[in-house]
Amino acid sequence: MSHTTPNTKQPMLGKITNPRELGVVTKAPGQANGNLATVFGNAPFLKWDGEANTPTCVGHGAVQGAEQFLLTFRLQVGKTMFYWFADPHDSEIHALLDSWADAGYMSVMLQTSDKLAVLGRDYPTVPREIKALCSSERSIDVKRFLRCVTEVVSSGQLRANATSEIPSISQLENVYGFLLLSRGAQVKLLEEVS
């Protein structure tokens, strides 16, 4: 991937969508009808460069922020890693995880300046540790979530702790973070700032 110079000190905005909403036809497992919920990120400062054989890896997990845990969905493309951060207290995120478990597949989409890629991996069940985070009694606090994600990305914590998930790549060159706000979280944020 080739890069121009983005502001990597702040998270970019990601979203939950599905390939069909973006006019994409995919034959990925779990995407037979294009309706499987997918995390999406736009990185127009990147060019895929037609590297069809560039190794990729999709993953998921959680990181501890200053005020709460954050769910992560990851996409590694060669020496570049993308993180989508989600609030484990958001019911729409719970629905996303359940839809992946029902389909047995998780999916991410990345738009670069020259390509829209849909990638994924098997997702047979919501991992126990993720379920535990999602079932906590805390309600969603959008401002707290925004502060946590911004801190993780802008402090350098994300870059310092990110590691390659592809065995043939020992070190990452670039790490980017997306803020994954559900539609409900966006509405709640607008209500809080109004």
Content-based structural category: alpha/beta
Q: Please compute the radius of gyration using only Cα atoms.
A: 16 Å
Q: Cα distance, first to last residue?
A: 41 Å
Query: Percent of residues in beta strands?
Result: 25-35%
In which range does the helix fraction lie? 25-40%
Q: How many helical elements?
A: 5
Q: How many β-strand stretches?
A: 10
Low-confidence stretches: none
Give helix and strand order, one letter per element, not per position.
EEEEEEEHEEHHHEH
Biggest beta sheet attributes: 8 strands, mixed
Oligomer: single chain
Q: Name the overall outline.
A: globular
Q: Strand order across the biggest sheet?
A: 5-6-7-10-2-3-8-9
pLDDT average, as an integer? 83
Characterization of this structure:
The chain is an alpha/beta fold and 194 residues long. It contains five helices and ten strands. The chain has helices at residues 91-103, 128-134, 142-154, 157-161, 183-193; strands at 2-3, 12-17, 38-43, 46-47, 56-64, 69-77, 80-86, 105-112, 116-122, 174-180. The strands form two sheets. An eight-stranded mixed β-sheet has the order 5-6-7-10-2-3-8-9. The radius of gyration is 16 Å and the shape is globular. The N and C termini lie far apart (41 Å). The mean pLDDT is 83.
Provide keyphrases for this structure.
194 residues, eight-stranded mixed β-sheet, 5 helices, globular
Brief account:
The protein is of the alpha/beta class. The chain is built from five helices and ten strands; from the N terminus they run βββββββαββαααβα.
